[in-house]
Design brief:
Two copies of one chain form a homodimer. Chain A is of the alpha/beta class. Helix content of chain A is about 40%, strand content about 15%. In chain A, strand 9, helix 12 and strand 10 form a beta-alpha-beta unit. In chain A, helix 1 packs across helix 2, helix 5 runs parallel beside helix 13 and helix 10 crosses helix 11. Chains A and B meet through helix 4, helix 5, strand 2, helix 6 and helix 10 of A and helix 4, helix 5, strand 2, helix 6 and helix 10 of B. The structure holds a DNA duplex (30 and 30 nucleotides).
Chain lengths: ~350, ~350
DNA sequence: CAAACTCCCGGAAACGTTTACAGCAGGCAG
DNA sequence: CTGCCTGCTGTAAACGTTTCCGGGAGTTTG
C-alpha cells in the first residue's frame, strides 16, 4: 500500500523507473546513461550498476512509440517454399541489414484477404516499411497499398498509374526468350505449363507465350497449353494431363517448381529430356541447377529485383516525399542441359552459385 | 499559432484526437466506438464518419504499449533456403494463425551474433513470443534465451537442465535408422556426408553414425566420412572429395540438401543410384520427393516439431508461470527409390504431399 | 414523487520511453 | 566580488492508445 510509485511494469519486469530509483537518480538521467549520452562518471557508474543488478532491458515498443521508428522492415511473399522468393529475400536482407535494420518475412499464402490484413496490421507502425510481392492485385488491395501508413514497395506488375514504388520485370518477353531458344533448336510442338490465369504473372506469361508463337508463325495448339498453380505437385499433374492428349517436343514452364514437376512427369511417361522433349523453366532458381539434367531457365532477375526494391524502400523511408518510382529488370535466358541440342551424359560441373548463366 | 491542441501525429497522420475533435466527442468515446465497445447510435455514427473522412488508422505501436501485446510471433531459423524450415514454418503458421496471431520469420544465417542480436531486439516486446531453432548454442546464447523478456521455445537439442521450453527429435537414432536400412539391404561400405561438427545436429549425427556402424559390427573407414556445411553445393563438393579417395556402396547424408548434392556428384562420377550406391537423406523434405530417383530420407518430423513448438509457445504466452517443458518427436524412415534393392525404371507416382511415408 | 438503476460521456491516468527546458553548482574571466 | 559560461541534473511533457472512474441524464420502481 505505502508504495509511492509503481516502478515495475505490469508483469514485474524492471523499467527505467526501477533502475533510476535504485541508482538514486531521475529517470531522465537513467535514460541518458542507458543511451550513452551524457551523465557524470559517478552517475554513469550508479546507473550501469543498477541496470545490471535488476536485469533491465528496455521496452522496444515504448521506445518506438517515442521515436516513431522500429528498425524493422517486412517482406510479404506468397509462398516461402518457392526458391525464387528465397533468392529475393536474401538480396533484400543484405541491403536492409546494411542499413542497421532487421528483415522479417511473412508468407501470405497468396490469399488476398491475408495480404490485405497484413497491410492493415503490420503496416500500422509495427515496421518502418515493407516490400510486398503480390500475385493477385485487386482495387481494394491497391487502395490499401496506396494509403499505407508506412512506405511500401511492390515487386511485380502494377497498374501504370499506381502511385506506388514498383520494381518489375517483363515476364512476357521472358517467355519469349524461352520460345525463341526452343525454336532456334528446331522445336515446333512447344507446350506451355502455366500457373493460374487469374494471377498477374499467370496472365502475363500466357500472353507472352501466345505472342512468341505468333511471332514465329507457329499456330497455337490449345491442347499443348495446361494450367495448374505455381507449385511442384500441380506442375507435375498439369503436365500429366497435357501428355495424355498431346505430344510436345518442348515445354515451357511458368516457373522452376512447375518445371521440376514437368520433368518428373516426362520421365515417368518414358520421355527423355532433352532428347524427346526439351524443357525450359522460369526464375532461374537454385532448384534449376539442382536437377538432373540441369534445367534451362529464364532468369527474371529475382535477386536484382529484391536488391532494387530494398534500395527504393530505404530511400523512401529516408524521404517520404519522394515521387513514386518504377524500375524494371530485364529477363535473360540461362540455357542448360534440359534444352540442349546435344544431350550430355553426365551433369555439368556445379556452376558458381550466384552468377547468372550465359544468356542467349 | 492559435492551435489549442496538436491533433495530428508528427507526420501529419490523423490520431484518435483528430477523429474525436472532428466528431465533437471526447477521445474516450472515439476510442470506444473505434473498438466497437459502447457508444450511442448517434455517437457511433459521428465517430465512424469522422474516422472515414480523415482516413484514420490506429497506431499499432501505441496500442501495444497499452495492451502489452502485439499479436505477433516470430520464428528464427538459420536458413530459409532449407526446405526443412519451410515445412516447419508452415506447421507453425497454421497453429499461430488459428490463435489470431501473425507469424514473422527471420533468417539468422546461422551466426550466433546475429541470433543473439535478434533475441536482444525482437524479443524486447516487438513480438509476443518466439520460436528459435539454433544450430549452434553457446552459453551466452543460452543465457539470452533463458532471460528473454518474451516467451521462447527452442526447436532442437538443448542442455538437459536448461529451463526453456524445448521440442527436440533424436537425430542420433535417426541416423541409426538409415544405417540399419542400408545394412539390411546388404550394403557394407557405408559413407557419411555430414554438416559442420561444431553444430549441434552435426555432432549428434556423427555420433549416431559411428554408434550404428559399431552396433552392426562394421569397422569405420574414416575415408568414408566427409564434412561440409548443410547446403547443396557443400554436399556435392564433399561427396566429390569422398569419391576421390574411397568406394562407398551407400551414402548417408546429414540432410536432404546434402543428399541432392551427393546424388549429383555420384551421377557426375558415373555411379548409378541406387545400383552402385544407395543414398539416404535426412529431414524427409519435399525436395526428397522431387528428385529422380526419389530420395529415401529419415524423417525428423519437422512439421510435427513445428506444430508442437507453436502449441507450447501459445500455452506459455497464456500462462508464463508454467514450468519449462520438453517434448520429443521420434524419427522414422521413408524408404524410396534411391535406396531400393530393385531399382525402378521410372519415378514412383507422386505421393500425397504431406503424409509421412511408410516407415521401415 | 423520490429513490434506484442504466447508459453514456468526458477527464485523467496509465503503458515505458525520450527529450525540451529550466535550475543549480562550480569554474573562470573581468 | 560579480557575472557568465559549462556541465549535470530533475521535472514534466510528449508519443497515441486504452480504460478507470465519477457525474449527468433519462428511465423504471416502490
Amino acid at each position: 500500500m505505502g508504495r509511492k510509485r509503481l516502478q515495475e511494469s505490469a508483469d514485474g519486469r524492471p523499467t527505467v523507473h526501477t533502475v533510476a530509483a535504485r541508482a538514486g537518480v531521475s529517470i531522465a538521467s537513467a535514460s541518458r546513461v542507458l543511451n550513452g549520452v551524457g551523465g557524470s562518471p559517478e552517475t554513469v557508474r550508479k546507473v550501469r550498476e543498477a541496470a545490471a543488478e535488476v536485469g533491465y532491458v528496455p521496452n522496444a515498443i515504448a521506445r518506438s512509440l517515442q521515436s516513431q521508428r522500429t528498425g524493422l522492415v517486412a517482406l510479404a511473399v506468397e509462398d516461402i517454399g518457392n526458391p525464387v522468393y528465397v533468392e529475393m529475400m536474401r538480396a533484400i536482407e543484405s541491403v536492409v541489414a546494411a542499413s542497421g535494420r532487421q528483415l522479417l518475412v511473412h508468407a501470405t499464402g497468396g490469399q488476398i484477404a491475408n495480404e490485405t490484413a497484413l497491410l492493415r496490421r503490420l503496416a500500422h507502425r509495427y515496421v518502418d516499411g515493407m516490400i510486398v510481392s503480390p500475385i493477385r492485385v485487386t482495387d481494394d488491395h491497391l487502395a490499401a497499398l496506396v494509403d499505407s501508413p508506412v512506405p511500401v514497395v511492390v515487386v511485380g506488375q502494377l497498374a501504370a498509374d499506381a502511385p506506388v514504388d514498383n520494381v518489375r520485370t517483363d515476364s512476357r518477353t521472358g517467355v519469349g526468350l524461352a520460345v525463341d531458344h526452343l525454336v532456334a533448336a528446331g522445336r515446333r510442338r512447344i507446350g506451355f505449363v502455366n500457373g493460374p490465369l487469374d494471377t498477374v504473372p499467370g496472365t502475363a506469361r500466357d500472353a507472352g507465350f501466345r505472342a512468341a508463337l505468333a511471332r514465329h508463325g507457329i499456330a497455337l495448339d490449345e491442347r499443348l497449353v495446361e494450367v495448374g498453380d505455381f507449385r511442384y505437385a500441380a506442375g507435375r499433374a498439369a503436365t500429366e494431363r497435357l501428355l495424355a492428349r498431346a505430344q510436345p517436343d518442348a515445354l515451357v514452364c511458368a516457373n522452376d517448381l512447375i518445371a521440376v514437376g514437368a520433368l518428373h512427369a516426362l520421365l515417368a511417361a518414358g520421355r527423355r529430356v532433352p532428347e524427346d522433349v526439351a524443357l525450359v523453366g522460369m526464375d532461374d532458381t537454385e532448384l534449376a541447377r539442382m536437377m538432373f539434367p540441369q534445367l534451362s531457365s529464364v532468369s527474371l532477375g529475382s535477386a536484382e529485383r529484391g536488391r532494387r526494391a530494398a534500395e527504393l524502400l530505404l530511400q523512401r523511408i529516408a524521404d517520404p516525399a519522394l515521387p513514386p518510382r518504377r524500375e524494371q529488370v530485364a529477363p535473360s535466358l540461362a540455357a542448360r542441359a534440359s534444352s540442349a541440342a546435344i544431350p550430355l551424359l553426365v551433369p555439368e560441373p556445379a556452376p558458381a552459385p550466384r552468377t547468372p548463366e550465359v544468356t542467349a
